[in-house]
Design a protein that fits this description.
Elements lengths: L2 H10 L3 H12 L11 E7 L16 H14 L3 E6 L5 H14 L5 E7 L2 E5 L15 E6 L4 E3 H10 L4 E7 L12 E2 L14 H13 L14 E4 L15 H12 L7 E3 H20 L9 E3 L6 E4 L1
Parallel strand pairs: 1-2, 1-3, 3-7, 7-9
Antiparallel strand pairs: 4-5, 5-6, 8-11, 9-11, 10-12
Amino acid sequence: MSMIQRRIAAALLPLLPALVLAASLAVLPSCTLDLDYDRYAIVYGISDYFPPGTSSDDLTSAHLDAQAMRDLFEDQGFQVTLQIDDSATKAQLATDFSSLEAAATIDDLFVFYFSGHGGQTIAGTNGGTENTPDSDSEEEYIALYDADLTDDELATLVRTIPCVRKVVILDACFSGGFIGNSLEADAIPPNYSEEGSNGLFEALDNAIYLYANFQDYGSDIPPGEALVIAASGEQDYAYETDDNGVMTGYLLESATLGDLNRDGYITVSESYFYIYRNINKYFNKLYGPSGDAFFPHVSGGPVDYVLFTK
């Protein structure tokens, strides 16, 4: 060993324990999360609307969405309540939430999934309000088999579930309106260079409002209550294929392909990003020129939950 080699070895000797530790960490798997809690899902999908078999509002694949999501959730260890078509009534939904309210605990994970029609009505006609910044004058709803369920009504049901981890996934038109404030993400960022409705000062004013009222909304689902993945914006349509809703198709894929950081877990935000990226890359690229482009939305905020594991 030369003099230079001996000096290098002597300099590295005090660092040997740290180097050995670093080398051992390099071959260890990524950290594991404690997922030792129960997982519950209420899954609704409606293709055949009332009156059965003859409604002009019938969809093609919403019931297939629900069945596929049931299978995925069960594979992931969820206890699933599934209702499709004529069993997906407003009274049944209240019963299913009531049953889960009694079964779940604060430590558990709860997911409500819906595929079907979504719509809008004038705010206040069903007892609701729209009091968040940038909200339009309409109140959003999802269409169950026999009746509509407004964003306020769904928010009330979600609040009854004692779980600290709650996720709402809506594959329906106008579903972005179920998100309880402007802390949401979509594909089109605000243009802060403009004055007026999208200007910097109004954005700052909205941010201050949201900070002061983060948990104090009379309507919709605030991110402190549940994270929401919505297929479309508050004023946008969602679309389906013969096999699945476009959003649900990519949601299903995200359970295996959405692990962005390769840690073995797919969080709500990772699933959303996979959905958004693929809708924009494939559906919008093909159909956007004809005016059918749409972008999913997701609740913003400082929290994220593990939705799937690989």
